[in-house]
Amino acid sequence: MIDLFKIKAKHFFPRIQEIRRHLHAHPEMSFQEYNTSAYIAGVLNELGIEHTKDIVKTGIVAIIRGKNSSKKTIALRADLDALPIVEKNEVPYKSQNEGMMHACGHDVHSACLLGAAMILNETRDVWEGTVKLIFQPGEEMLPGGAKLMIAEGVLENPSPECIIAQHVFPSMPAGKVGFREGMYMASTDEIHLTIHGKGGHAAMPAEYINPLLAASEILLRLDKFFMKTQHSDEKGNSIPCVLAFGKMLADGATNVIPDAIELKGTFRTMNEQWREFAHQKINEIIQTVCTETGTRSDLRIVRGYPFLVNDNTITALCRDAAINYLGAQNVEELPLRMTAEDFAWFSHQLPSCFYRLGTGNVSRGITSGVHTSTFDIDESALEIGSGLMAWTCYQLLKESSSENK
Predict the structure, then answer these.
(1) Model's pTM, two decimal places?
(2) Cα–Cα distance for residue pair 204/214, rounded to 1 Å
(3) In angstroms, rounded to a whole number, what is the distance separating the alpha carbons of residues 105 and 137?
(4) Residue 256: phi, psi to the nearest 5?
(5) Looking at residue 402, what is its pLDDT?
(6) How far is CA 117 from CA 42, 162, 386, 387, in A?
């Protein structure tokens, strides 16, 4: 049976490549993926796959029914949105939308999901159950399209027993994939902070309260507590966390002390209790410094995605399917990552597996990371990504419901 899936993946590769290049050339921002959605719906129409459009404006849910379709449902997910980046690649499929680029591989994810749909649709007489295809908007923008689609009932009618997704991994060579059971990616929160002092002439320190000094002290104390101190849970397990600020704005001059300074940062961790405590501690440290310096603060913490957890059983089954499809030498174990993904919302709703698809090729100079202006992929990964996703889905459908609960 595996040969059938590989043959289908190879057969559909030119079409999958064409889809990926079209999507790459026409990126759209989060929750604005109207043309992307229409294009994907058009492909689904060509394939004769039933689907529902306009979920959270641009999301799509498609259904492929095999034999005995009520037996079991598996969900597969891809994301649609691009990033506000000016592409520097000189390729035939370079972005035609100025200031927008598929620099995180969502074009690859959607093309591979459509490829998997082609394979599963043509083999539906050899498997039992139902496959639900989720094309999700707004992965790059809080609160995340996954959360909004869940609220609109994307995991109902029919309800999947598990959900899987893949993500490009440029530091891994094309031809390989990676898995990790359990906790995998961090939660993410945005920190918006303004420190108010009293502006004045820099030569008259008795007449002003410098908010830059207060902000500097706050950063040092936050860094010492969150980044230079080890923290553990009640069982003594280390709690990974990151608190970092990437933006500071103070509209002063060489001899002008401004009234205020604005800071923006991110907080990430893998423990929900610690996350709640950390929010309180951030505020406590800020208030302490403000009291000491005679400044005041406006703090806003925007709660983002939760941590992403891969179900042990489902992930083990997916890894076994990958070993079967690609060979053990091409399946790697992944380390924890402090990056975040809104697929995490799905992982807190039902058993999930979020794995990595190798897309790099050092010999061809395809090495740029995601979120960069020169990101690209070895397109051979499209055949692997489509075929493996379809094969993994087939394998999961074979497992009895009781074994996955």
Answers:
(1) 0.93
(2) 18
(3) 14
(4) -125, 120
(5) 38
(6) 13, 17, 8, 10
Q: Assess contact for 361 and 378: CB atoms under 8 A.
A: yes
Question: 60: closest CA among 121, 110, 115?
Answer: 110
Of the CA atoms within 13 Å of residue 42, those in its CB half-sphere come to 9
Beta bridge partners of 169: 358
| Interatomic CA distance for residues 162 and 341, integer angstroms | 17
Report d(CA 24, CA 101) in Å as an integer. 7
**Interatomic CA distance for residues 385 and 375, integer angstroms:** 18
Average pLDDT per 10 consecutive residues for the chain, totaling 405 residues: 97 98 98 98 98 98 96 97 98 97 98 98 97 98 96 97 98 98 97 98 98 98 96 90 97 97 97 95 98 98 96 98 98 97 97 98 97 98 98 90 41
How open is the CA angle 96-98-101, to the nearest 5 degrees? 75
Determine the residue type at 265.
Answer: G
> Which residue in the block uniquely carries the two structure tokens 């079967």?
324
3-state helix, strand, coil in the chain (%, to 5): 35, 30, 35
Find all residues with CB under 8 Å of 238, minimum gap 6, and list them: 230, 231, 232
- The secondary structure of 224-288 as a DSSP string is HHHTSS--B-TTS-B--EEEEEEEEE---BTTEE-SEEEEEEEEEES-HHHHHHHHHHHHHHHHH
Residue found under tokens 């091409």: 330
Q: What's the rounded Cα separation, in Å, for the pair 50 and 29?
A: 26
Structure tokens at 276: 């709640």
Name the 3-class secondary structure at 73. strand
Which pLDDT does position 399 carry in this prediction?
79
